[in-house]
Amino acid sequence: MKYLCQILTRKFAGVPVWNNVPVTAITLNKTETSIAAGQTETLSVSNIAPSNATDQTVSWSSSDTGVASVDVSTGVVTGIAPGTASITATANDGSGVAATCTVTVPAATGFAPVLASAGMASHIVGWVQLWENGPKWAGFNVGATISDYAGANSYTTANIGGLYRWCGTNNMRDHTSASDDHHADDYSESDDTARKIWGTNWQMPTQDQLEALGAGVSISGTVGGGTSFTGTHTIWTWCDGFSTQYVSGCTLKGWKISGLSGSAYAGNSIFLPVTSLFNFNYNRIDFTGLRGYYWSSTKNGSGSAWGLLFYITDQFVYNDYREYGFGVRAVLAE
Q: What is 2-105's CATH topology?
């Protein structure tokens, strides 16, 4: 009698029990993914077994809504905060069958230690990410000892860092007659200027990373303080040091480079001040307050390497002799 009642109950509910085929397996379109905070991605069911399962609908849930939330019916996942969450699709037929995708929301800012010998009071440097899966850029140039650009008003090592021959550690801004190891044709990670001075948490960016930083940024027309140009990953805004300052009290010129508007990285930025150049031909400092030179870790044959050059009307990655002294903006070593 009890069994008959169950049959009748399901029958009148529109679910004939003798035709019910339960779900035995669910496959998602992804088993893991990375979503930036504030961004969305739609997960979906790519397969349900058996193919003739009676109820092939699922409900979505998140193991940690503080990291990533999900719409219960559509599978649209939203990144909330750095961390990892499991997004699960569970069969609605009561079989208990489920499938999971691991969602990682990457951290866009953070800190990493530097060697005490670097001379920074806190022995720690903040980093910032400007686009998804992009490098994590240090907040200051190697050799700088400030903790904030506020009040920075002179083109000194303390404010804008040192000028180093490629893979060198002698600051040519202060010691223009010093020699250095700039002919490291057998370059390895241990030769990296950033690693030598700041420690193994840091490294010089690669040529590709410098090119990505300015990808699609075409500087043209009349440029003044506050003029911005949007590229593939970033927005470049010229800071002339007076009418447009990077932070209050900073009178240094350079480019403020920000994440794209509307992206999860829109609030993140770095400031690349003009560095000047150590000119080995004349043993002097050139282009003070005018140009920024930054080394990459990428060689170009024997005797030269790739670096970033910018000024108020242009920016590009090019190769130059390793004897020159450039600035170094480190990235987190990962």
A: Immunoglobulin-like (2.60.40)
